[in-house]
Amino acid sequence: MKSLILSTCAALVLQLSPASAVEHAEAMMRATFKLFNKDSTATCFLLRDGAEVYLVTAAHTFERASGETSILVLREVDQDGVWKRQDKTISIRKGDQALWTKHPKQDLAVMRVKLDLPEGASLPLDVVKSEGFPAFGDPVMLLTYPARVEANGAGFPLARQAVVGSFPAEPMAKHPEFIIDATAWDGDSGGPVFIDAGGGKPQVVGLVISRINHVENIKSERETRKIETPMGLSKALAAPLIFETIRLAKEAAADR
């Protein structure tokens, strides 16, 4: 009888674990979007703090974008269960004035957005890790648009798995970056790095900011060439910086 109960419990675990893994990744996917204009393409995700919704991405995404607007690729499912792409033009500048808030020291920016969003298109702020780094060797997942590629016509991001490759030897306040063993491409910047928090919920532990290359300077009699080779590694910023940047955005809005 005891062995029968154990066998039944094991079968239930096997049945439930994949569903949980799918649920946390899908919840993160629904809140992750492509953000682009003619000079900048990247990944972003949406977080809500009470009634306010903030777009989170790498700061260089906004800085490299020209003009006053970018396109946020939203999605919505119709009554037949088919996902439809919804390109929304959002303001990123008013003249020369940036509408986003950049972290004072790091490549991270947030911007409040006012849009009618589909259900599940933003996640509560409490999904973000509030302190410290993810653990060395931890498996993580990232959602991005590598080389601007979309998973399908609805504009969903692509999922990849990685591990945390760097040990946190210094306090986060001094060195808030960590390394993952995945190659970042153009279009990946700002993508969430996350883990399974349990109960079908994701926990954001960072966001992708850059690729790590091996750089060689090849010299000949007539020329010098710099060759950059991807090492299969990328840098990510620790998630607690998101809280700092949203706080700065709120303070800036209160001063206006």
What this model shows, in words?
The protein has 256 residues and is α+β, with helices and mostly antiparallel strands. It has one domain: Thrombin, subunit H (Beta Barrel), CATH 2.40.10.10. The chain contains three helices and 16 strands. It has helices at 2-30, 59-64, 240-255; strands at 32-37, 40-49, 52-57, 69-77, 83-91, 93-94, 97-98, 101-102, 109-113, 123-124, 139-144, 158-163, 177-180, 192-198, 201-219, 224-238. Strands 1, 2, 3, 4, 5, 8, 9 and 10 form an eight-stranded mixed beta sheet that branches. A six-stranded antiparallel beta sheet has the order 12-11-14-15-16-13. It has a two-stranded antiparallel sheet with strand order 6-7. The longest helix is centred in the N-terminal third of the chain and has 29 residues, at 2-30. It is globular. The protein starts with a helix and ends with a helix. Mean pLDDT is 88; it is low at 1-18.
Provide key terms for this protein.
Thrombin, subunit H, alpha+beta, 8-stranded mixed β-sheet, signal, 256 residues, globular, protease, single chain, hydrolase, 6-stranded antiparallel β-sheet
Quick overview:
The chain is of the alpha+beta class and 256 residues long. Helices cover 20% and strands 43% of the residues.
Query: What is the annotated CATH architecture?
Result: Beta Barrel
CATH class: Mainly Beta
Run of helices and strands = HEEEHEEEEEEEEEEEEEH
Q: Largest sheet, if any?
A: 8 strands, mixed
Integer count of domains: 1
Helix percent band: 10-25%
Fourth-level CATH superfamily: Trypsin-like serine proteases
CATH fold-level assignment: Thrombin, subunit H
Overall SS class? alpha+beta
Protein name: Serine protease
GO molecular function, one term: peptidase activity
Pfam family, one: Trypsin_2
Signal peptide: 1-21
